[in-house]
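Dear colleague,

Following up on Tuesday's group meeting, I ran the structure prediction for the two-component complex that the binding team flagged. I've pasted the input sequences exactly as they went in, so you can double-check that nothing got truncated or mislabelled along the way. The structure tokens for the whole assembly follow below. Feel free to forward this to whoever is handling the docking comparison.

Inputs:
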Amino acid sequence: MTRVKMPDIKERKGMAHGWWIACVLLLLAISFVFDMWGDKRLIREHKPVDPKYYSTNTVRHAFEKAETAQAGYQFECSSCHELMEPPLQIPKLIAEHEDIVLRHEAAMTCYTCHSRTNREVLNDIYGTEVAFGESENICRRCHGPHYRDWKLGIHGRVMGYWDKTKGPSTNKTCVSCHDPHAPKFPLMEPSPKPSRDHYITGGRNAAHDEPR
Amino acid sequence: MPRMTNHDDQNLQEGLNSLGNEKMSRRDFLRRGSILATGMGALMAAMSPLRQLQGAFDPEEFVQKHYKEMTPEEMDKVLRRIERKVAERFDVKATVRDIKPMDGVEYVYALNLSKCNGSRKCVHACVNENNQSRSPEIQYITVLKMPQGTMDMDKGEILYDPPKVPEEGYYYMPVQCQQCANPPCVKVCPVHATWQEPDGITVIDYDWCIGCRYCEAACPYWARKFNFAEPRIPKERINPDMSYLSNRPRSKGVMEKCTYCLHRTREGRYPACLEACPTGARIFGNVLDPNSQISFVLRNKRTFVLKEEVGTIPRFFYYFDE
């Protein structure tokens, strides 16, 4: 056992040093508690993103029936089209259907897909009548590989179950995403970008604060 | 044991006397007392970060076994405890389950880069499904804006934010956990807190993770994310359908990553990112089923994997088809 000599406090000369150390410790303690020269490391509060940025909706609405019937109008397409024959030349849309822009294929006219005799139905390029809800049967006459992929579930939107024994999966139709008059997939507003300024508020990284 | 000598005894007695009250002056007492008080104050200030840990310590959680070692009864107790904790922390009634992998299933993902338009809807659908921290923000999917004509991922831009996507001259490449068949992240884990399940999904036991971040460094796809702070999620955004290995709320100091939404996919459903993708660029399924969509893609499309040269053997494929 080593010899331990207890210090005699009365005789110690280092009392002044004790005060100094105590003062320094106290100052350090105060500075740590109030984080006087730190980065504050506060966490930046992000607003939760709008649910539209992760909704599972398709980019457009597919009509099951002709648009007039869908909207609940009493009249049918033929109410007008009995009287007037739309011109074959595109685009010459007057008074009605002004919102329709035909940007599909140069050779296409209204009658490539719409029946000339019965406006309530569509027809494919061979003249076979096709209901509005089954328009993929028109598309597939030209877009065979896409139709094959869509049938298999690898083109377009699928929802539900990958395991068919557990539940159904639904395929969205062509017109859920593609406007048949201008089928190019529309440009979209991107969802918010990731944030790179999680912790530091104000101070040296303020230049990167771009709340959205 | 050495005996105490008289000399030692005398020394000790002197010391005790000097500490005793009868020999201490008032001045000495005040001096020593104030030094002691200051010292204690400084010590408490230095220890103040520990105060934040109060409440986080849970003896039950501390003695909890590793996921693979728990019996079903123990697991059930743990799941109920997690439900209680979720209720305390977020005031949400959640159901936490432990979903086992299906037999004869191996999950593979494919992503059609010709279709992806960089809308980032998958990123936020994933965050919403998997209860990631909103502030600070944790996201499993990173979408890279890549200039056309290169596959160099270093040229990818993450913080793109134009009014409309896609932009002319770029393609978009979402990167998430590739569920490698030879995962480097699993090899480096010093405590076996992460492992590969029979259906190919690499999972993490969040209660076993020590937060060393070796796996984050080992992953060549930046797929693993670390909770640097206590995750914060608004109450109304909590997804109450939780599972132990995937989307139950994490705590500060643990790693997390994409699990192919195993609480959904092990029940036969599609992952959340796939259902949210507006362009249908994502293909998911069981690669062991020759009639599945993913098998068709792997047979018929020209697929490739990211960073093939590092030998991770990913279960995530990319392809262009137009």
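The first helix of chain B runs from residue 6 to 19.

Cheers,
M.
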